[in-house]
Amino acid sequence: MVIDDEWPALEQMRELLLQCDGISSVLVYDNPREAFTAAVEHKPDILFLDIQMPELSGLAFAEKLLPFSPDTDIVFVTAYRNYAVEAFELSAVDYLLKPVDPPRLLKTWNKILSKRMLPGATGTRSAETAFRLLGGYELTGPQGAVKWSTHKAEELFAYLWIHRQGSVSVILNDVFPQWNYEKGKQYLHTTVYQIRKTLKKAALGDSIELTFDRENYRLESRGIEGDTERFMEAATLALQNNQPEEMRVAAAQYTGDLLQSLDSLWVYASRDKYRRIYLKLLEQLTLELIQSGRHYEAEDYAVRLAELEPLDESYALQLISIYYEIGKPLRAQRKFTEFRDSYKAETGDDLPEWFMEVYQRLGK
Question: I want to staple 9 with a disulfide (CB 3.0 to 4.6 A). Which of 4, 29, 88, 240 is the partner?
């Protein structure tokens, strides 16, 4: 798939790619938002992506697509060398400068072929030991995704991974609240036994240890990196450095709310912690992009904020302001109408006077 806002560049890339051995189909798009929908659906093997595009930059496009199509190899194509570091931070396979030189493109194509033929390449990849809790739940070991014997074993393992330890009484209160103490304790020990058995069967017994001492369970892991730890480390550093591209890369690691399909009460406090960090990242990134005059890029993150917190007045005004700034007054007015109607339906109140005053100034 090739995405570029200029048709001559698209046609050139399509012709060059069709000359490469092994390429039978090339999809081209000049609208990045339409292309994103198609990429999520088709999950292309390789994506040639222009960086400088209106409405949605190539870097933002790649960041958004990664959670939906992690096996897509991305090659950035641009006229500017200064994006190279940012491109490779997003795990780009290569970086091509415009106008694209055919021998250089062939070198990129051979590089991709070699990568895919190596042991561990897509399709023959040996399982990587990792734990995903953001946007889903999957523990992967040497033998692939771990299959849990019961939902309770799956939940208890997630609980212990997040908290790392807990007394019997606290775990019973959080994870087994419907049981009395004695029956709950028995169920807890049975569930722990199931966890240990599952880990051993998945060849993870040496990597994850679940111990019990003095009415307290402790979980220790070696050589396994969870996505929550990676996200927190990247987010903390990015917020400290206040660099847009670092914040962009950190935000891409938040692929959804913590254990979003789990409804137990204990998860809400932890879920809120990660969500607040993500919101802070988006807020700071959007502000930095606006202050740098990069309003087209800021739009995408402002939209995310408004979707995550649909009744937040400041997020709505920020998005409306961006729409006016990039010459989309009709979209700004439509966003105002949608927000006003949702606000009224949810709260039963009209929009605050201060909101209306700010909005009216934006429209002038």
Answer: 4
